Amino acid sequence: MSKRLVWLITGTSSGVGQELAVAALDRGDQVIATARARSFDMLASLKKKGASVVELDVTAPLEKLESIAADAVKIYGRVDVLVNNAGAGTTPGVLEDLTPDDTLHQFNTNLFGPLNVTRAFLPYMRERESGTIAWIGSGAAYSLIPNHALYCATKAAMIRISEALNVELQPFKIRSICFDLGWYRTDALRPDRYQPLVQRISAYKQMAEEFDAVLRNSYMTQRGDPAKAARLLVQILRGEGVAEGREIPSRLPIGGDAYDLIKEDAVNSLERIEEWKEVISTTDADEEKASNL
């Protein structure tokens, strides 16, 4: 994949999204960098490097996103790689303490919004029978983070959305890939950005505060370097460098800690189902002609 690609990346005002835009530009590709209105001024450095910048809020109505997509495609005539990177950490708190509005906000930002962004750009990719949709997921899909169950749930659901799209879009030669990232040294846990712990039910107070302190104290001690992750993602999505000659899977962890989390989850799952195999299978129908869906 040596041609110059056109990338549209959501959530490029900071963190992995910003680094990914830089890495793609450094590779010589064309980048449409997006951010919502309140962060739009933070795209100035990317614009100076040569990126086109577009205001995009993933939680906007589908009709608005379709209009943005139509205008974005006109910039370079196409979008080859759509990266669903924009997202948000949950309001910290145990599930019973969080409200239905908290829940809906988390899913709108991390799942429903990116899915609508994808819907807005897919017609252009289908018309050309070419394109890649990349989803920036998280190892949190495989390991619960106390006080952040909603975030973990959105990232777990993202995997299945991406995999379903990868199957559904095969006739159009479009691929969908979910990258499950580990913990990276971004501003997500910066003290002035990290939201206060929700505490309405006193029974959870001690446990919630202990877990909250652990996460807050991990700021800038995370294992991952976002610039390294971005450069690796560009290589993988372009099929170059370390990815050259490899078949790119529909799901891939990025980061040593993500590898550890996913491997532990897989090993534990296999051990559990093997231990319970005889019990699990007792509900099978007696006839031999049962099908596997």
UniProtKB/TrEMBL annotation:
GO molecular function terms noted in the UniProt entry: oxidoreductase activity
Cell division listed as a keyword: no
Keywords assigned by UniProt, alphabetized: Oxidoreductase
InterPro entries: NAD(P)-bd_dom_sf (IPR036291), SDR_fam (IPR002347), SDR_oxidoreductase (IPR051911)
Protein family (similarity comment): Belongs to the short-chain dehydrogenases/reductases (SDR) family.
Name of protein: Short chain dehydrogenase
Source species: Heliocybe sulcata
